[in-house]
Amino acid sequence: MVLGCNNYDIVDLGVMVPADKILDAAIAEKVDMIGLSGLITPSLDEMVHVAKEMQRRGFTMPLLIGGATTSRTHTAVKIEPQYSGPVVHVLDASRSVAVASTLASSDENARSNYILETKKDYAAIREQRLNRTSSKKYLSIKEARANKYKIDWAGYQAPRPTFLGVKVFEEYDLEELSNYIDWTPFFASWELKGKYPDIFLDETVGELSRQLFNDAQSILRRVIDEKWLTAKAVIGFFPANATESDSVELYSDEGRGGVFSKLHFLRQQVEKTAGQPNVCLSDFIAPKQTGIEDYIGVFAVSTGFGIDKWVKQFEDNHDDYNAILLKAIADRLAEAFAERMHERVRKEFWGYAASETLDSQSLIEEKYDGIRPAPGYPACPEHTEKRTLWQLLDVEKNTGIKLTESCAMWPASAVSGWYFSHPESKYFTTGQLAKDQVEDYAERKGMTVEQAEKWLASVLNYDV
């Protein structure tokens, strides 16, 4: 996105636009600064590339960085060193005007001081991170695998899903999904801190939170009653077993004679205290050598179909507030859909927790057996595994949810991932990865090391 400082007009170039197009537009439109927004982790690497290109082409205008996947640390460590002009991370859109005003100020002293202080701040962040990183010790991937999460598989009988293959859900009931909305992240997206419903009692943001919630309820009611959005989903279950190399084999039938696909996961490598394992998602699937017939689930859901029409209508009426509100509600419904479908998987479709009786708060607190990690998130931070997911479920054909070249989902209000049933399965963060695992992962995926490093850029423990 290219941002002009003349009354802060915006020239919106869309999603995942190449660097050359961004910079050519900046010149053509005679803008005063460029703003980049990161929605998923692959866009972080593209931001670095844009900064390098701005330097190469002799730009001097400010570069603003923002979006859900960005941070001051990433901006300071990866982006700012690539460009000699001003680089500023903007925490959220509401603060961009103040930052832009300072950078475009006619008061040269104020502008220069702000840029200088920002550069000093980012230099300090880089030094702190270097000190922290250098103090950490990492195991080789071989050592990390030897310290895997150990499950006692003796006598374990993996639950069999009620069906194998794929099941499609068309026009799922939005009223039903609304009962599964977790409202706390909704407030967080508006930079209002506090848990729902306690946030309404907060002396500072309580009144504002209640007004925002009431507005959201009004929009949600219209979404449901007037069918503004359509919810679609596809799930599937496949016979599976883990290999010794952190991958999971999927079999074409329960005879398990033929491997028709593989999932590739990543393992923690930072050295742990005694007795603490280096975990990988494959640890929660029965190893092939045990002879146990295990299974894995796959899903993709979206509640974003139809949203563009209504967002455009709000924006055409200069009603940005309700346009943003609708997008936030669609995102919450998508997460609610993932929650509800996971509940049905546990109780019906996989059926390993048929007698489960959890209230809404217990679901939010994940007090159930099994997990549903998503590619691109901390336990499996590499997005291209979505491509395998899309093939397994034929997601685009069965639901219309598309995957972009950068592995972003469209509509944006969508969630996809895996279902693990083992009661000891848990969420975790891989943390940073050493080069030997990246090389191993590249070989398993059929990538070059350079390609793997690009997709794993945000979790490498070394510079490329």
Q: What is the topological layout?
A:
Blueprint: E1 2-3, E2 10-11, H1 19-28, E3 33-37, H2 42-56, E4 63-66, H3 72-79, E5 87-89, H4 96-103, H5 108-135, H6 141-146, E6 165-172, H7 174-178, H8 184-188, H9 206-225, E7 230-242, E8 247-251, E9 259-264, E10 294-305, H10 307-316, H11 320-349, H12 360-364, H13 385-393, H14 395-399, E11 402-403, E12 409-410, E13 414-419, H15 435-445, H16 449-455
Parallel strand pairs: 3-4, 4-5
Antiparallel strand pairs: 1-2, 1-3, 6-7, 7-8, 7-10, 8-9, 10-13, 11-12
Helix pairs in contact: 1-2, 3-5, 9-11, 10-11, 15-16
Short description:
Helix content is 39%, strand content 15%. The protein contains 16 helices and 13 strands. The model is unreliable at 1-14 (pLDDT under 50).
How would you describe this structure to a colleague?
The strands form three sheets. Strands 6, 7, 8, 9, 10 and 13 form a six-stranded antiparallel sheet that branches. A five-stranded mixed sheet has the order 2-1-3-4-5, with helices on both faces. The protein has two domains: 2-134, Rossmann fold (3-Layer(aba) Sandwich); 142-172 and 228-431, Vitamin B12-dependent methionine synthase, activation domain (Cobalamin-dependent Methionine Synthase, domain 1), CATH 3.10.196. The chain is built from 16 helices and 13 strands. The chain is α+β, with helices and mostly antiparallel strands and 464 residues long. Mean pLDDT is 91; it is low at 1-14.
